[in-house]
């Protein structure tokens, strides 16, 4: 098996795992919030600390979800300028944007790691370490770094302007 095939296989497993985690987090949030509504409707029931679990799930769903849409090239972007530029200049702008995205991912990873490691907070009721929620930032940041480097590599080694490169879903 080649290195490329190994990377593609790892990427596929990571993507499936992250997608499953995001879906499970969304289901968990929905269930917990529904139970929270029922508890408020029927005061004889009790569900203490559910909001702390919801906070944890929202953090992981948000950051892993962002990494997944980053991978798919589905992040919101404005292409008005790039569509009006000559192809070569549009390619340069797209490459610059990818480099900026890499910089963002690096900052998110390092700062998220710093916040997660330095946090001594715990949640008030369940006493969960807040670092569990904060850890979602460096984990997603690492995935974003991998996807940004992959996108930059594809831009540099793929077809140049005049052919099909950095267009449509490949941009990101």
Describe the structure concisely.
The protein has helices at residues 3-41, 50-72, 80-84, 87-118, 131-134, 136-157. It is an all-alpha fold.
Could you explain the architecture of this structure?
The chain is an all-alpha fold. It has one domain. It contains 6 helices and no strands. The chain has helices spanning 3-41, 50-72, 80-84, 87-118, 131-134, 136-157. Helix 2 runs parallel beside helix 6 and helix 4 packs antiparallel against helix 6. The radius of gyration is 20 Å and the shape is elongated. It starts with a helix and ends in a 15-residue tail after the last helix. Mean pLDDT is 89; it is low at 165-172.
Give the SSE map.
Layout: H1 3-41, H2 50-72, H3 80-84, H4 87-118, H5 131-134, H6 136-157
Assign the structural class, choosing from mainly alpha, mainly beta, alpha/beta, alpha+beta, or little secondary structure: mainly alpha
How much of the polypeptide forms β-strand, as a percent range? under 5%
What is the global morphology?
elongated
> How many helix segments?
6
* Tally of discrete structural domains: 1
Number of beta strands: 0
* Helix coverage percent: over 70%
Overall pLDDT level: 89
User: What is the chain-wise order of helices and strands?
Assistant: HHHHHH
| Gyration radius from CA atoms, angstroms | 20 Å
Ranges where pLDDT stays below 50 over 5 or more residues in a row are 165-172
Q: In whole angstroms, how far apart are the ends?
A: 28 Å
Q: For the report, how would you describe the main beta sheet? A: none
């Amino acid at each position: 098996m080649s290195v490329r095939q190994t990377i593609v296989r790892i990427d596929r497993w990571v993507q499936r795992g992250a997608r499953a985690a995001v879906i499970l987090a969304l289901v968990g949030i929905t269930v917990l919030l529904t139970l929270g509504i029922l508890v408020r409707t029927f005061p004889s029931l009790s569900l203490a600390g559910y909001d702390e679990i919801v906070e944890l799930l929202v953090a992981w769903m948000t950051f892993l979800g962002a990494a997944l849409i980053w991978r798919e090239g589905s992040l919101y972007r404005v292409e008005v300028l790039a569509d009006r530029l000559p192809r070569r200049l549009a390619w340069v702008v797209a490459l610059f944007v990818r480099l900026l995205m890499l910089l963002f991912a690096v900052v998110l990873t390092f700062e998220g790691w710093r916040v997660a490691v330095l946090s001594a907070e715990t949640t008030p009721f369940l006493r969960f370490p807040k670092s569990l929620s904060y850890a979602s930032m460096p984990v997603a940041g690492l995935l974003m770094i991998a996807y940004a480097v992959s996108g930059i590599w594809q831009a540099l080694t793929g077809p140049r302007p005049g052919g099909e490169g950095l267009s449509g879903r490949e941009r990101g």
